[in-house]
Design brief:
The protein has 100 residues and is an alpha+beta fold. It contains two helices and three strands. It has a three-stranded antiparallel sheet with strand order 1-2-3, with no helix packed on it.
Amino acid sequence: SAPRTHGSRDLDLGAAVSHALLQALAQKGDAVQMIAGAFVTKLLRSRGGGCVGCAYTKGGAVYEERGPVILCTGGFGADLSSRSLLAQYRPDLLHLPTAR
């Protein structure tokens, strides 16, 4: 076996995962809201400590959403600079192909 990343035959890994999630999201209709290009500033917590929503900024405005939260941050494997997280914590993996 050779060192490698996993992906689909037709799409790179990130695109394949995004495509599958967007298809599932479309089936939920208005039950799920996707907010792209936002910066989450705080997770809102219940008195018991559970996550009950988030605060975020987008376009200079501040918003809060309550309910289940899924944070999707993107990957860092495509950053091959000397200051990247990969270079800092796993420089042994820099030579491997990424799923970008």
